[in-house]
Specification:
The structure holds two protein chains of two kinds.
Chain A: H1 4-24, H2 28-52, H3 63-93
Chain B: E1 4-6, H1 12-31, H2 37-64, E2 70-81, E3 88-96, H3 98-123, H4 129-151, H5 155-173, H6 180-213, H7 221-226, E4 235-237, E5 244-246, H8 247-262, H9 271-274, H10 280-289, H11 294-301, H12 303-307, H13 310-333, H14 337-357, H15 361-388, H16 406-419, H17 426-440, H18 446-472, H19 480-484, H20 491-506, H21 514-520, H22 527-532, H23 545-572, H24 575-583, H25 585-592, H26 597-644, H27 654-672
Parallel strand pairs in B: 1-2
Antiparallel strand pairs in B: 2-3, 4-5
Helix pairs in contact in B: 1-2, 1-4, 2-3, 2-4, 3-4, 3-10, 3-15, 3-20, 4-5, 5-6, 5-10, 6-8, 8-11, 8-13, 10-15, 11-15, 13-14, 13-18, 14-15, 14-17, 14-18, 15-16, 15-17, 15-20, 16-18, 16-20, 17-18, 17-23, 18-23, 24-25
The chains are: A mainly alpha, B mainly alpha.
């Protein structure tokens, strides 16, 4: 059985990659992908914790897994909206660089 | 409480008028369609008549019980809070004892007559049909409140009625509200009463607090009386001077402040003369016969408290006597028929407090009853005069009415005879009893009190006869047009007057003094005293019969002198008052302008208060602090902050947002994991 440390370690690594990706890349599509990476890192952590926690006696602990399903559903919706924004942005500006869209400021 | 028996009829006495009031209110406020007048009349007068009949029934059953018995009718616990030592319990319960049964009979009996009279009086009022119903709605509501006040079994219930009658008084004074002055008078009455109500409330709090600290928390009259011994010797640190106050004195004074407001005593009497802005039946019912006597009723109800509070009693007596004299002198110079009667009411109420302060509670209640009869009669007769004169109230424009409206003249004359204390009419006996009470009282300066009472009796006689002569004798001074149309009012107006006149004549019989009873061989002739006797603390005094006869003769002499001077001045030699006024310019002006008390209050209290409200409260706190600093200041602060700093955060670069978000997330994480 894989120890919890490994699962959490992998999750942390994936999450950090996601964070760095969002913070450093300017391509909107890559940024969205990085966000997905972070979400899935969290999902991984949920699964790991779910396995470790046996739950109430006589019952099967499913909380973590249910949460993951929720996150996947939300991520799917988010991607649908995000990609829609990306497409509309590309149509208007011929670019997916976030530096290009900076009108909304003081 | 051995002598308590339950009687479920009691609740219907106040409830009947309330039901009619609710019906009228719903018709006016919700249905908003004109109700036929016959229905309004049938409901209003019918319910009050029902209350009167019920009052008679329960009075009869009470009279059949042994002395000191009471009837009670508990509905439910109105307010219940706490347990044990910290218990507060206010029951919705009615109690009929001798005192409240007398009051109930007066309220419903005189009230019924005035309701009937109002049918005719308000019929003249053709402003709109809803006004007619509104009037009867308020009148019924008033009757309900007054009965709650009288029948309530505890102080809280009494306070409910107390506030209820104040509200109805306000509503009815400002009944013709489209005239700004009337609305102003209503507000004045309400505000001045509020000062008194404050004293009443503080009195309740003090009394309840003292009883609770003594281990008997209660507001119920019978229970207060039973456990009163626990607190009668308590003292409290003085708020102003002196070593210590007796708590009962303080409580008595607080309650008396309430009585001063409601019963128009010095220095809170100023609202009552202005209350004459209301329709005349209202003046008769509320501002002469019933509501203004609530203070007297309250002091009598708490007589056990005042008996143990000599300082408070002395204050009551002295304030009463001074008010009686003060108001009577003002009444001399007034020219508005209702104003004369209003100041006369203030003066007579002073008499009642004089009696109550001198421990003559029976005398106070007796005068309350007879006053209700003859003052209601005088007001209603004045209303009849006013109707005949086409709403003219200035007595200088009347005169010579005695042949034109002989019925009104006759009943008015009876009222004048009664109030000026001519035997054997009712006013003579009740006033005499008060003077005897003052003579024998254990109050500092009681002989001065007697002297003031006697002089006031003379002044009362003078101004009442003046009013009578000026209005009914001499030549008519009305305009030709008005003079043509003076005629007697319909029977619905005149007949209640005759009933009241009969009561004013014969009402004295309920308090026929023992001294005459002895002379005529009647045992226990003072039936009111026998009936009420058990309720009030007994003050032993022995007075030789000859002294009592001398005092009665002195009172009759004063009344006769008042009559003589009035006859001389206003019938025999009409030029005398004019010359007297010219010779005594300053005192006359002082009386005519009511001692400038209104102006004094205006300068000392009203205007500084308005100034304070305007400068400090309105411009300082409302406009300056709340609007300026709190509302606009916040908005201006946010705007400044945003313009000079926060806006730079909104860079438009997605990357910097992401960076800030990460910093924020790490900061929160750092805080949670610290």
């Amino acid at each position: 059985m894989v120890p919890l440390d490994h699962v959490i370690g992998l999750s942390a690594v994936l999450f950090t990659i996601g964070v760095v990706g969002v913070a450093t890349r300017r391509n909107l599509i890559v940024m969205l992908m990085s966000i997905e990476l972070m979400l899935n890192a969290v999902n991984l952590a949920f699964i790991g914790f779910n396995r470790m926690w046996p739950g109430e006696p006589g019952a099967i602990a499913l909380d973590g897994q249910v949460f993951v399903l929720m996150v996947i559903a939300v991520a799917a919706a988010e991607v649908a909206v995000g990609l829609g924004i990306v497409i509309s942005m590309f149509r208007n500006r011929d670019s997916v660089d976030v530096e290009v869209v900076s009108l909304l400021r003081w | 409480m051995v002598n308590e028996s339950s009687d479920p009829l009691l609740r219907w006495i106040p409830l009947l008028p309330l039901l009619a009031a609710i019906f009228h209110g719903v018709m006016i406020g919700v249905v908003r369609r004109a109700t036929p007048r016959w229905l309004v009349i049938a409901l209003s007068c019918g319910t009050v008549a029902g209350s009167f009949l019920l009052s008679c029934v329960v009075f009869a059953s009470l009279a059949g019980l042994p002395d000191g018995a009471t009837l009670v009718d508990g509905l439910y616990t109105w307010i219940g809070a706490g347990v044990g030592e910290l218990r507060f319990n206010a029951e919705l319960r009615f109690r009929l004892d001798a005192l409240s049964s007398v009051m109930t009979l007066v309220v419903t009996g005189v009230g019924l007559l005035i309701h009937v009279y109002s049918i005719g009086y308000m019929d003249d009022d053709h402003r709109d049909d809803k006004g007619f119903q509104r009037f009867f709605c308020y009148l019924n509501l008033f009757t309900f409140s007054m009965l709650m006040l009288v029948l309530g079994d505890n102080l809280v219930l009494m306070f409910l009625g107390w506030e209820g009658v104040g509200l109805c008084s306000y509503l009815l004074i400002g009944f013709w509200y489209s005239d700004r002055f009337n609305a102003y008078c209503g507000s004045k009455a309400f505000i001045v009463n509020r000062i008194g109500d404050f004293g009443f409330l503080v009195g309740i709090f003090l009394l309840f607090g003292a009883l609770a600290s003594a281990g008997a928390p209660t507001v119920d009259f019978a229970e207060i009386r039973a456990s009163f011994g626990l607190i009668s010797e308590m003292t409290v640190p003085a708020p102003f001077w002196g070593p210590e106050w007796r708590l009962v004195d303080l409580i008595g004074l607080c309650f008396f402040v309430g009585a001063c407001g409601k019963s128009a005593q010095l220095p809170l009497y100023v609202w009552l003369p202005d209350a004459m802005a209301g329709p005349t039946p209202v003046s008769a019912l509320i501002h002469a016969a019933t509501m203004v006597t609530a203070g007297v009723y309250m002091v009598s109800r708490l007589s056990f408290l005042y008996a143990a509070a000599p300082v408070a009693s002395a204050v009551v007596a002295w304030v009463g006597a001074l008010t009686a004299l003060f108001a009577a002198t003002i009444a001399i110079a007034q020219t508005d028929i209702k104003k004369v009667l209003a100041y006369s009411t203030v003066s007579q109420l002073g008499y009642m407090f004089l009696a109550a302060g001198c421990a003559g509670y029976t005398g106070a209640v007796f005068h309350l009853v007879t006053h209700a009869f003859f003052k209601a009669l005088l007001f209603l007769a004045a209303g009849s005069v006013i109707l005949a004169m086409h709403h003219e109230q200035d007595i200088r424009k009347m005169g010579g009415l005695r042949r034109r409206i002989w019925q009104t003249h006759a009943v008015f004359l009876i009222g004048v005879l009664a109030i000026s204390g001519i035997p054997p009419l009712s006013g003579f006996f009740s006033k005499d009893e008060i003077l005897v009470a003052a003579w024998t009282a254990h109050v500092p300066g009681h002989l001065w009190l007697y002297a003031i009472g006697l002089v006031t009796a003379g002044i009362t006689s003078f101004y009442m006869w003046r009013l009578y002569f000026v209005v009914f004798w001499g030549e008519s001074r009305a305009s030709h047009h008005v003079r043509e149309q003076i005629r007697e009012q319909p029977p619905v107006v005149v007949n209640p007057l005759w009933v009241l006149a009969a009561l004013a004549c014969l009402g004295g019989a309920i308090g026929f003094p023992q001294v005459y009873g002895d002379a005529l061989g009647i045992e226990r002739s003072h039936s009111l005293n026998n009936f009420l006797g058990g309720l009030f603390p007994v003050v032993e005094h022995h007075l030789a019969h000859s002294t009592e006869y001398a005092m009665a003769l002195a009172a009759i002499g004063m009344a006769g002198a008042g009559f003589g001077i009035a006859y001389l001045c206003y019938v025999a030699r009409p030029e005398l008052p004019v010359r007297a006024a010219a010779a005594l310019k300053v005192p006359y002006q002082l009386l005519l302008e009511k001692y400038y008390v209104d102006e004094l209050y205006d300068a000392l209290i009203v205007r500084p208060l308005v100034k304070l409200s305007d400068v400090v409260l309105f411009r300082g706190i409302d406009a300056g602090l709340i609007d300026g600093v709190a509302v606009n200041g916040t908005a201006r602060g946010v705007r400044g902050l945003a313009a000079h700093g926060l806006k730079y955060l909104q860079s438009g670069f997605t990357q910097s947002y992401v960076f800030l978000m990460i910093v924020g997330a790490v900061a929160i994480l750092g805080y949670l994991l610290r």
